[in-house]
Amino acid sequence: xxxxxxxxxxxxxxxxxxxxxxxxxxxxxxxxxxxxxxxxxxxxxxxxxxxxxxxxxxxxxxxxxxxxxxxxxxxxxxxxxxxxxxxxxxxxxxxxxxxxxxxxxxxxxxxxxxxxxxxxxxxxxxxxxxxxxxxxxxxxxxxxxxxx
Length: 148
Fold this sequence. Notes:
Cytochrome Bc1 Complex, Chain D, domain 2; two-stranded antiparallel sheet; mainly alpha; about 45% helix
């Protein structure tokens, strides 16, 4: 196990112990990851209500997403680890959701003022839960730690 993975695992364990009193959130595991079930449920609900119409219920994106669609704009990419989204920091993902597609290159609307910061954070957490352990570990070690 490499040092970054050990540190990430320990930090997750330590942060899981922080909170309101002795009340611990119910967690759901995927590989080496632990997620608060309530956060995942809220993130999935917000995603299905607002994002799935374009990105698909499982974040699979549109076929041919790497090429422009009939309107000349890029199609919704997969968010499930099969696209490039995992190469963004969580701050960059949040900014993208807030502001929508940069330079009008795609049809992603700006969600700032429509979704709260908490809802956006929960959606991003839910999206990262879709990723394989390999993609998640690459994100945490190469991208996720560079938050700004």
